[in-house]
Amino acid sequence: MATTLPRSVSELDQTPPFRDAARLCARAEAEIRLIDRAQPLNAAAEREALIAAWGAGKPRAPRFEYAQRANFAALRGMLVDAARALESEGPLGALYAERARELELEASLAERIDTGEFAAHCAARYAPLEAVDAATASDWTTRWLDAAEDRSKALHRSDDRGDRRSLVSALERASEGLPVRVEIRPNQAAAASVGDGFIGVRPGLWHSEREVRRIVLHEIEGHARPRVLAQREALALFRIGAARSSDDEEGRALLIECRARVLEGARRRELARRHLAGERVRAGASFVGTVSELIGRGQDIESSVEAACRAFRGGGLGREFVYLVALSRVKRAFAADPELERWFERGRVSVAAARVCAGNFGDEVLR
Questions:
Q1: Which segments of the chain are extended strands (E)?
Q2: Nearest to 60 by CA among 280, 282, 287, 283
Q3: Is the pLDDT score of 363 beyond 90?
Q4: ∠101-102-103 over CA atoms, to 5°?
Q5: In whole angstroms, what separates CA 309 from the centre of its chain?
Q6: Could you please report the per-residue DSSP string of 82-126?
Q7: In whole angstroms, what is the distance from residue 178 CA to residue 186 CA?
Q8: Checking CA distances to 148, which of 1, 57, 87, 361 falls within 20 to 30 Å?
Q9: What is the average per-residue pLDDT within 18-32?
Q10: How are beta strands 192-195 and 198-201 bridged, if at all?
Q11: Residue 151: how many CB atoms within 10 A of its CB?
C-alpha cells in the first residue's frame, strides 16, 4: 500500500488491498457456510425420531449424518495473509483483519465438524467478550425457564401459503420491495432464518399471530433490512460483515423484540432452554445429560430435544450461547451511546466495529 493514504475512508476502501480483501471475505463466507455445514443432513427426521424415543421412555443420543468435511487449507492461508497485510493499516484495516481472522477460524471449525474436537474449538468462536454479559445471560436463563407459557388457541401452520396469517404469508408481505425470496426449508433448525437473498421458513410448525409478528420483526428488521441497505453503502465492510457482526445482529434482533413487547412467555422459555443447552455444550456435557437436565427443570420433552439438537449440531456448535449474551452486550452499548444503533441499521456491524466506525470516520460515512 502507498505510504500516502487516500483522503477519505471511502477512497481507502476502494484501494486494491481493501477491495481484494473484501472480495476474499465475501467469497470465504459463501464457501465456508459454517452453520449450514453443521446442520445434519437428516436433521428433521432424526429430531422427530429423538422426540418419539424420549417420549417412549427410551432416551438416546442423536444419530446425525453430515456431508463430507471440507478442506479449506488454501482459503485459510489466503485469509491469514490478508489479515497480516491490513492489520496495521489504520482503523479500517484492523476491522478487515479481524473479519478475515474470524472467517479463518470458521473455516477451521468447518473442517472439524462431527469430530471430538469440534465443540471445544467452537467455544473460542462463540466466547463472551465480557463476563458481565455472560452473567446477565445466565441470570435471565434461570428466571426465564419458569416464564408463563402463552395460551393462544388460534395457531397457524408456518408453511401454509393459503393462510394469510401464517408465517410464510406474513414474511412474504413484510419483505415486499426487498430483493429477497421466502423459501420453505425443511431441514433448518430455526423457525425462520435469513441468508444471502432469502428468508427460510421451517415447515410444519404452528404459530400464534403474536409469534408470527415476533418472528417477522426479528427476521426483517433485525436481519434482512440491514443487509439490503448495506448494498447501498460505500464501505464494503457493511456487506461482508465485521467480526462478531452475526452475533451482535442477533442481539439487536432480540432487542427489537423487547421493544415491541413480544419477547415474553414462551419466547423467554425458548431462549433460556437454548442458552442452557449452549452452556452445557461448552462445559462438555452429553446430549442425553443436557436433555435430561432441561426436562428436570420443567421443560417438556419436545422443546428440550429441540434445544439440545440445535446446540449439539455439528458435534457441538453451541452458537445458542451467543443470543442472550449478545442481547446484554447490545443493550448496554445502546444505553451508553444510542447513536451506535445507526451503524447497525446500515449493515453488518458489531458493537466493537460500530464504536470504531463512530470514533474514526463517523462524520464522513453518516453525513
A1: 156-157, 181-184, 192-195, 198-201, 206-207
A2: 287
A3: no
A4: 90
A5: 16
A6: HHHHHTTSHHHHHHHHHHHHHHHHHHHHHTTTTSTTHHHHHHHHT
A7: 23
A8: 57
A9: 97
A10: antiparallel
A11: 8
Give residue for cell 393462544: 152
Q: Which of 144, 151, 133, 167 minimizes the C-alpha distance to 307? A: 144
Name 174's Cβ contacts closer than 8 Å, sequence gap at least 6: 216, 220
- Using 50, 70 and 90 to split pLDDT, how confident is the model at 3? very low
Instruction: For 7, list phi and psi in degrees, rounded to 5.
Output: -70, -30
Which residues have C-beta within 8 Å of that of residue 139, sequence separation ≥ 6?
Answer: none
* Residue bearing cell 422443546: 303
Dist. CA 270–CA 76, nearest whole Å: 35
- Tell me the pairing of strands 181-184 and 198-201: parallel
- Calpha distance 72→267 (Å, rounded): 37
The cell for 81 is 495473509
Is the pLDDT confidence value at 90 over 90? yes
Residue recorded with cell 447501498: 232
State how far the alpha carbon of 267 is from the alpha carbons of 82, 204, 284, in Å: 41, 18, 26
- Whether 220 and 175 have beta carbons less than 8 Å apart is answered as yes
| pTM to 2 decimal places | 0.94
